[in-house]
Specification:
Helix content is about 45%, strand content about 0%. Helix 1 (about 15-25) crosses helix 2. The chain has helices at about 15-25, 30-40, 45-55. It has a domain at about 15-55. It is found in: Cell membrane. Pfam families: PspC (PF04024). It is a single-pass membrane protein. This is PspC domain protein.
Length: about 70
């Protein structure tokens, strides 16, 4: 399983759904639909999304610095 980090590619807003999709081996579109459907239910889903957006690190690039 991959580390939980927000990817630089495939983001729609913050990359949280894309990160969770990579972690659990599903497509980002599926994870977004699951999130949207869960927002119809009572609970703190939107606050959890915001918290993950803040807490999850952004994926590092493999850029090298030329001296």
């Amino acid at each position: 399983m991959s580390a939980l980090a927000r990817p630089r590619d495939g983001r729609m807003i913050g990359g949280v759904c894309a990160a969770l999709a990579r972690r659990f081996g599903t497509s980002a579109g599926t994870m977004r639909v699951v999130f949207l459907v869960s927002c119809l239910l009572p609970g703190p889903q939107f606050l959890l999304y915001l918290a993950l957006w803040i807490l999850l690190p952004s994926e590092r690039t493999s850029a090298t610095t030329a001296w």
